[in-house]
Specification:
The chain is an alpha+beta fold. It is built from 18 helices and ten strands. The strands form four sheets. Strands 3-10-9-8 form a four-stranded antiparallel beta sheet, with no helix packed on it. Strands 1-2 form a two-stranded antiparallel sheet. Strands 4-7 form a two-stranded antiparallel sheet.
């Protein structure tokens, strides 16, 4: 590999190239996923220069161990001595990548047999990602629903955020939510208490309800010790789990998909860095949704309807409208617009028929079809109070 050219790559560009290399090796998928993240720990927690100086050092073993112990001591609450060996092994593998042509097998000696000859000459497969559409959204939602661990984890988070600890004034509530989110989404925050304490100081509940996009920026920067940390992805997830209608989630998968379709179809024009500025990121997602016609879900079970003339209900798909498997990013938002100045004395009654929930008040009747998420119903009820 041409190391001088590699050093000019951005963090995401280098990770993408390295992941392609890892997939060409005889490595388990779980190891690839871990290595794709942990290899670049020194870059994330230190700097680009620290990372490159370490992996190219003539005294690599000593320098890498020293740098990792320092970084882990500052950022991790775990046992540094046990963690350092794992991170060191990922850096060793990266040095094999640097010594290779980017595709050759380097982890085991090659044997001159048919299987290895075929493997050595294996070409990289060009992935043909389907055109984004409402049908594709439904297809991957259905696949996501078959992944019991992801589905139940998300249900647990919904219960925690919407029922058990909906507010953010009690440090214990915030600690519970931040810890669960950090664990389920693997956001790699090794010291969660300073994050929770920071959130408590921001008085965020009203801003969350109002969908204030600047809140993400206020949450994402946290001082831990003498270092300011940037927990951008975590901040989007924390806001989204309180108000999924207004806060789409950012993560590396969404980032990669948006850049892919920008380059392929030109659905909008933006520099890569805009994805890390939340207000711009959200605007890009809205442009994505509009370009591919993802404003309405074709799946009737994910919608609801009104039979009354007094209330107009818009149904659209916001946030991660098109997403990768194993990562539930699609959000179905609901906006209610009153066609009259006042709807008073709302006293809803709830009944069910044929596996649906119907809310009636005055001349208005809203039916929720089987399968709709509970937090969407809660959001509708919250908005009805303001009509």
């Amino acid at each position: 590999m041409d190391i001088s050219k590699l050093k000019t790559l951005s963090y995401d560009e280098l990770r993408t190239l390295y992941r392609e290399f890892l997939h060409s090796q005889s490595i388990a998928k779980s190891t690839i996923n871990t290595s794709y993240v942990d290899t670049f720990y020194l870059w994330r927690k230190g700097s680009k220069d620290l990372f490159w100086n370490t992996v190219t050092s003539p005294a690599f073993e000593n320098d890498a161990k020293e740098a990792l112990i320092k970084a882990l001591s500052e950022n991790s609450t775990g046992n540094v001595n046990s963690l350092v060996n794992s991170y060191l092994s990922h850096l060793r593998r990266f040095r094999l990548f640097l010594a290779s042509d980017g595709t050759a097998e380097t982890t085991t000696p090659k044997q001159d047999n048919a299987a290895n000859r075929i493997y050595r000459h294996k070409k990289k497969i060009k992935v043909n990602v389907p055109q984004p559409s409402a049908e594709q959204v439904e297809l991957y939602l259905a696949k996501w629903d078959t992944l019991e661990n992801y589905r139940l984890q998300e249900n647990a988070l919904n219960k925690l955020f919407f029922e058990l600890c909906p507010n953010n004034t009690d440090i214990i509530d915030v600690l519970l939510k931040a810890s669960a989110l950090n664990d389920f989404y693997s956001t790699n925050i090794f010291s969660i208490y300073p994050v929770a304490k920071h959130i408590c100081t921001l008085n965020i509940d009203t801003r969350l309800r109002d969908g204030d996009v600047t809140l993400v920026g206020d949450i994402q920067y946290v001082n831990i010790g003498d270092t300011e940390k940037n927990f951008y992805s975590f901040a989007t997830k924390y806001c989204s789990h309180h108000n999924p209608l207004d806060y789409p989630i950012y993560d590396s998968y969404v980032d990669e998909v948006l850049r892919y379709f920008r380059n392929r179809d030109g659905f909008t024009d933006f520099p890569d860095g805009d994805l890390k500025v939340y207000i711009k990121f959200k605007r890009i997602l809205i442009n994505f949704r509009a370009f591919y016609g993802l404003d309405v879900s074709p799946h009737s079970n994910n919608a609801y309807k009104s039979t009354a003339p007094l209330v107009k209900i818009d149904i659209s798909i916001k946030g991660g409208a098109f997403h990768m498997p194993e990562q539930k990013l699609t959000i179905v938002p609901v906006t209610l617009h009153s066609d009259t100045e006042n709807i008073s004395n709302i006293k809803p009654t709830v009944s069910s028929s044929n596996s649906t929930c119907t809310i009636k008040f005055g001349k208005v009747e809203i039916s929720f079809f089987n399968g709709i998420d509970e937090h969407i119903i809660q959001t509708i009820m919250r908005e009805l109070k303001d009509l």
